[in-house]
């Protein structure tokens, strides 16, 4: 899919030039403080000869730090001699949100991963989405977007994708999940019912013919050594699997492959109050099992409201803050996926 109108954003570096180059994507931003200013989105381009082109991004949500740290370390360590092809890295893609440490942009309250395909004349966040989908992604073979639970959620460290209707593409997507090597991996069997729908970076990649993968690398608004190690090793394995990285990589550990179905895989707060979880991250639960109590701290004599699990499965995600409002996500589940070929080892390239 080609852009019908040019983006107003521009890069301070030539994104197609051979070698290693770092700079910024300039987002025009005229405000009282700075009439002719621009917002800087950090970007790096590392290119050596002919080969696949891969886009790596993190900070799509500004308070998700694991991917931002891992990609920052990759920018500093990766050199042209390490690769065959082209790697473009945007480690803090929604820079206004990352700078503020918030999920959404403080400028327009924009959630970048709900703004694709974007708008060249829209809000700041919509303009970023448009630039990514219509300037960066065309010509890429792969796009890997590294997320975590941010400030409000905690995930089992996982890689994820959607179920592509093309069996060959879906098989390759599952292969990448295994190659990344997080302890858990899952795919959405009903992407139209899950968060983001066709408004995500991954959906933008699909529209541009780019094969994609995402992650949920922990959360709680912090970085842990163990999860960062999973991210760093997994990124190198993905690049090697794509045929771009020429260095040695560690083999992937075993991965538990899960499926995420429809809305019944999610538990939402039935009322506002204080969230008391009745299950832990990583628990196996059953349909109908009590999931949470919501306590009314403003009227402690009231009986707490109860939420239940609506599906059997593994708790892959749970809410972090105790204070909650009606409609907040408290948990979501995954159920084991074991087709005949699920146990096959990842193909090496």
Keywords, separated by commas or semicolons:
349 residues, alpha+beta, Aminopeptidase, OB fold (Dihydrolipoamide Acetyltransferase, E2P), 15-stranded mixed sheet, four-stranded antiparallel sheet, 6 helices, 19 strands, 20% helix, globular, disordered C terminus
Structure overview:
- The chain is an alpha+beta fold and 349 residues long.
- The protein folds into 2 domains: 10-259, 3-Layer(aba) Sandwich (Aminopeptidase); 267-336, Beta Barrel (OB fold (Dihydrolipoamide Acetyltransferase, E2P)).
- The protein contains 6 helices and 19 strands.
- The strands form 2 sheets. The protein has a 15-stranded mixed beta sheet that branches. Strands 16-15-13-18 form a 4-stranded antiparallel beta sheet, with no helix packed on it.
- Strand 2 and strand 3 (37-48) form a beta hairpin.
- The longest helix is centred in the last third of the chain and has 17 residues, at 225-241.
- It is globular, with a radius of gyration of 20 Å.
- It starts with 9 loop residues before the first strand and ends in a 13-residue tail after the last strand.
């Amino acid at each position: 899919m080609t852009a019908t109108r040019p983006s107003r954003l521009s890069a301070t570096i030539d994104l197609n030039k051979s070698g290693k180059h770092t700079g910024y994507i300039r987002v025009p931003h005229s405000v009282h403080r700075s009439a002719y200013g621009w917002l800087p989105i950090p970007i790096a381009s590392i290119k050596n000869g002919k080969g696949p082109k891969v886009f790596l991004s993190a900070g799509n949500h500004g308070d998700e730090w694991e991917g931002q740290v891992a990609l920052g370390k990759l920018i500093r360590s990766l050199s042209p001699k390490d690769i065959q092809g082209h790697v473009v890295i945007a480690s803090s893609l929604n820079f206004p949100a990352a700078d503020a440490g918030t999920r959404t942009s403080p400028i327009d309250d924009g959630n970048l991963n709900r703004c694709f395909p974007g708008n060249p004349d829209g809000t700041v966040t919509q303009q970023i989405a448009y630039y990514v989908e219509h300037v960066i992604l065309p010509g890429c073979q792969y796009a890997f977007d590294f997320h975590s639970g941010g400030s409000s959620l905690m995930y089992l460290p996982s890689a994820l994708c959607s179920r592509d209707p093309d069996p060959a593409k879906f098989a390759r997507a599952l292969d990448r999940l295994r190659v990344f090597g997080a302890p858990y991996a899952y795919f959405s069997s009903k992407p139209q019912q899950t968060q983001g729908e066709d408004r995500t970076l991954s959906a933008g990649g699909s529209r541009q013919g780019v094969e994609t993968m995402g992650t949920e690398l922990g959360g709680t608004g912090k970085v842990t050594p163990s999860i960062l190690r999973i991210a760093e090793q997994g990124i190198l394995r993905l690049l090697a699997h794509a045929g771009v990285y020429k260095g040695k990589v560690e083999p992937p550990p075993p991965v538990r492959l899960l499926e995420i179905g429809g809305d019944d895989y999610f538990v939402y707060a039935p009322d506002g109050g204080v969230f008391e979880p009745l299950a832990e991250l990583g628990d196996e639960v059953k349909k109908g099992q009590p999931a949470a109590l919501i306590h009314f701290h403003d009227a402690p004599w009231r009986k707490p409201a109860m939420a239940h699990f609506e599906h059997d499965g593994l708790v892959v995600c749970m809410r972090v803050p105790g204070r909650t409002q009606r409609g907040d996500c408290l948990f979501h589940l995954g159920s084991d996926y074991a087709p005949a070929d699920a146990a096959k080892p990842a193909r090496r390239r």
